[in-house]
Every structure is written in structure tokens, then in C-alpha cells.
Amino acid sequence: MKKEFHYFLTAILFFTRIPCPKWVGHSSEMLNKSNRYFSLVGILVGAIAALIYYLATFIFTPEIAIILSMIASIWTTGAFHEDGFADSCDGFGGGWTKEKILLIMKDSRLGTFGVIGLFSILILKFSAIQTLSVAHINIPLLIISGHAISRFTATILLYTHPYVRDIDSSKIKPTTTQMSTKSLVISFIFGVLPLFFFKNYWVFLSLIPLLITYWYLARFFKKWIGGQTGDCAGALQQVAEVVFYLFILVLWKLY
Predict the structure, then answer these.
(1) Fewest Cβ atoms closer than 10 Å to its Cβ: which of 117, 144, 251, 253?
(2) Residue 104: which domain range?
């Protein structure tokens, strides 16, 4: 149990800006095994964003509250996944070979594809949540669920696809080793846990579009670069989060 707690703190250390004790290590083994708590970190990040949203609604409009909650989640993670999504947009948008795609994704500068992609997905995320805010949906629970289930979706990619970037030059060390089945199961448990708190269990149908999203992007990554990188996982997390919100919106329209 002590080791598992250490893995969880390592996940917090790596995936967020939340301060951790100095004794928390970040060896290759610790970083790789910390991926099993990716979804739990999502619950934590989502809870922070949800709390900001809830408190902000006492003072501001729902729209401003949503923006503040999005800013809170971005600040908490240091835009970790948004950066991966933007880099992926630049890499796959501007590169036509594996080597060129990986080179562009490694570049810290943001290009046209990255700017347009990041702007589009943030606007889409805001619009989906804003629409659901007037639909008697529990928005704090929605935010927590979106962060958790989208991170589980990203961990499937780490489980099924090999890491393709050179380890020594990589900025995303934990993805250098594929996840174990045990880690994937743990990630799944925490990923779906918030869904049990919805009154309508139709919400579990969201796993279908999320798996389709995973399948499509995983196939796309495999075709162009032969596997995945940390940026690919970050991109999948962002897309999966938006897909989750949009599917809940579709359920609300239907039911």
C-alpha cells in the first residue's frame, strides 16, 4: 500500500503542479507505474476545477464560472495535455514523414495548426459545458467525470501502443514503457468511478464513443509514426474529454 501511495504521489508530481513532499521520487520505474493513477489524478484535477466553478457561480454568471474552472484545470496541470494536443496538431498537420512529425512535435514553438487546434478545442469544450449548464446537469460532477474518463481513455493508448520517441531526448519519460494490465485495470476503475454518481446510468454509454475515439486516433498515430508519444496521449485526453461532454449533451437532447 505504501508503494501504491508513492506511485500516486509520483503521478501528482509529474502530471500536475501540485506540490509534493521532497522524498517523492521520479525514477523510471516510479514514473512508469504512476500511469495507473492517471485517472485518479484526473479526479483530483477535475475536483479542483469543479470547486472553482461551484464557488464562482455565487458571484459570476455560469459562463464566467466555466471559464474560471477551465483556467483552474489548465493551471493545475501546467497545460500539460493542452500542450500535447497543440504539439500533435502541429506535428501531424505539418509533417509528412515519421521523422518530420516527431521533429515538429518536439519543437517548443507553437505553429499555426497548434494555435487553431487549441483554440477550437477549448471553445468546443466551453460551449458544450455551457449548454449543459442550463440542462439541470450536475456540472461539478460532469467536470470531474470528464477529467477522469478522458485520462483513462488516454491510458489505453499507453497500454496498446509502443513509445516511438528516443528515450534520452524525450520530455515524457513515463510513456517509454507500455503499461501493465494491472495498471490499466486500476486506471479503468478510477476512470469510471465518478459515473456511478450520476442518477441516470445511461451515462455509461459514453464509453462507446470514447472507445471509438481511442480506436480512431490510435490507428491514426500507428499509421503515421508507428506508435505513440506523450504528446499523442495528451491529444487523446483532450479530444476524449470533449467527446464525453458532447455525448452527454446528445443524451440530454434525447432523454
Answers:
(1) 253
(2) 41-254
Distance CA 221, CA 227 (A): 6
**34 lies in a domain?**
no
Instruction: Output the nine-digit C-alpha cell for 222.
Output: 500507428
What's the pTM?
Answer: 0.93
Environment class of 159 (CB within 10 Å of its CB; exposed 0-12, middle 13-18, buried 19+)? middle
Give the total number of structural domains in the chain. Answer: 1
The dihedral region occupied by 78, where left means phi > 0, alpha psi between -120 and 50, and beta the remainder, is left
| 50 and 136 Cβ atoms separated by less than 8 Å | no
Grid cell, residue 170, equals 524525450
Query: For residue 236, which of 175, 176, 194, 180 has the smallest C-alpha distance?
Result: 175
pLDDT band at 167 (very low <50, low <70, confident <90, very high): low
Provide the residue count of the chain: 255
Question: Could you read off the pLDDT of 90-106 as tens digits, one per residue?
Answer: 999 999 999 999 999 99
